[in-house]
Input
Amino acid sequence: MTLLRSLFARQRHSRHPAAITRREEAKRAHEAAVVKRRNELRLAQIKAAQLMPGSAPIAPRDEVVASVQFKRKDRRNPEVTA
Output
């Protein structure tokens, strides 16, 4: 019985210190990534909440396309001014 326990114990846990530190580093890195993701999400939510009430309405697509085309024409013909 003792032999079986020792065999299975060795399979479950790596006794090498490098394996232990790698596992601990991976765990810490994962926890740090989770915290970073959570903080970024909170900042994005705060920024969105600040922008929402006073933000300008989005222009209709036709107006945006017309303004972009006008700017491109203006760039091609610098002597023509509107």
